[in-house]
Structure formats: structure tokens, C-alpha cells
User: Fold this.
Amino acid sequence: MVGFTWLEFEQQEGIATIRLNRPESLNALTDDLLREISGALAQAERDPFVRVVVITGAGRGFCSGQDLKALPRDPDARDIGAHLDRFYHPLIEKMHEMPKPIIAMVQGVAAGAGMSLAMAADLRIASQTARFSQAFVRIALVPDSGASYFLPRLVGIARALELAWFGDMIDAETALNWGLVNRVVAPDELTDATYAWAKRLAAAPPLSLAMIKREMYRGAESRLHDALQYEKGLQVAAAGTEDHRIGVEAFLNKTTPTFRGR
Ligand code: T3D
Assistant:
């Protein structure tokens, strides 16, 4: 297993946990940390024993976005487009395309690209302490790292514009009401609630989960006719798996299936 400096990577019972570990800056994203998150995801994707990924932050925050203290003082001295292409885009695309489910476990603040990171996960469970901000406008930037893609899909265009134009912080309850997070739980229940879902997903048929992920994201972008055709292709593949046979047999025999990912 590759070692990491800026995050903790643990693996247990089919669940890989990636914990950003720069708590003094609320886990602000440096190039090194971004490189390590991509590396940890690649490791989790390759490892056949990993079925689910949980991404979270150490300390009182989830992630405060780009480390503003790590930027060159002279804005002309950097190419932000190249920086996004090199460090952010591969990570966000990897999360979106990775066949395994990713859960963001959010405590405290998720701001700027830190909020994008949470939105690029498939599910979000928030502590009552969670807060979300499209902080970009506060430093005269625009939402990046997939925010313009994920945010309107999660909360609708009017709320996406409200969040992006004002850059205000919203609390966990608002995030839940707006559809930005799946669940809000008490701070001391966050870990249990997250790993209860992670364990259920780790025990579910992995090929079905992978196809459901592709199907849902594709469906959200397609016309109905195209979505129906795409669903059909995936369903033909799902029905041909050994796990499908195992699932049907278990149902008929009133037993609990053990899925094999085949
Ligand atoms: O190449 C590119 O730039 C492309 C990518 C851009 C994407 C982006 O993410 S742009 C948006 C970057 N993020 C922000 O603008 C958020 C900046 N942070 C804040 O506004 C506030 O810190 C928070 C609202 C997130 C939290 O406030 P609060 O009061 O809970 O905590 P705090 O005291 O402000 O922060 C605690 C420490 O973390 C503090 O350090 P100190 O004073 O104790 O030494 C603070 O400076 C540090 N910190 C927080 N956010 C960042 C940070 N340090 C570096 N970069 C940060 N983003």
C-alpha cells in the first residue's frame, strides 16, 4: 500500500476511508493533498477488496477549498486553468466515473472546491455542524471543480444561483431541505450513520451498484428515449451476472445473499 502524508487512508470490511488531514487549515487543498486524494482513490478503485469509499476530513472541518495561503502572491504568476486541469479536474472526474460508491461524511465547513468535493461524491451524510458555502464569489472567482455541474442538479437552478452569487454559508438543515445532502445526524452519530450505509453498500452486489451509478448520472443528462435505451443495455448486462443468479436464489430460498462481484 502506498503511504500518504496529507491524508489518512484506512481500509476495513470492504470500506476505504480517505480522511483529509490538514485540520489546522480546515483541510485546505494543496497540490500535494490533491495528488494524494487522486492516488488514494486510484488505490481504492484498483483494490478488489474495496467496495465503498468514504471521504471525510480530520478536525472540525470537511474541506475549506483551495489553500489560499499556498498560492503565489502575484496572480499573474500562475495559470489557474492549467492548475484546474492538472490537479482538480482529474480528481472530480475520477470520483464521478469510479464504479464504486463514494460517500462524503461532512462535519463542519465545506467551502469552495471543498464543497465541490462533497458534491462529486455520490451520497452526502452531514453532521448538524456541517456548513456549506460556494465561497468562490467572495474572492471574485466562479464556482469550479464541478460545482456548475453538480449544484444545479442537486438544488435546482435558482438555489444554485443564490448560493453562487451570494457565497453565503448554509447550515446542515437547509442543505437537507434543498437536497444537497441525503441525511443530517447529530455530531456523535455521524460516523455510525455513515458506516451503516457504507457496510450495506459493501454487502450489496458491486456490479449492480456500478451500473446503477452510471445509469443514474447518464439518466440525469439524457432525454427519456436515450435513458430507456441506456437502461436496457445495462439491465441486459446486470441480468447476465452471477450475482443476479445468487440474489434470485437467495430470495427464493429465504437466505441472505453473499455477492461476489461477478
Ligand atoms: O487554482 C485554484 O485556485 C483553483 C481552485 C479554486 C477553488 C477554491 O476552492 S476557491 C475558494 C477557496 N476557499 C475559500 O475561499 C474559503 C476560505 N476560508 C474561509 O472563508 C473561512 O476559513 C471558512 C468560512 C471556511 C471557515 O471560517 P472559520 O471562522 O470557521 O475558520 P477560520 O478561522 O477562518 O479558519 C481556520 C484556519 O484555517 C485559519 O488559519 P489560522 O488563522 O488559524 O492560522 C484560516 O486561515 C485557515 N483556512 C481556512 N480556509 C483556508 C485556510 N487556509 C488556507 N486556505 C483556505 N482555503
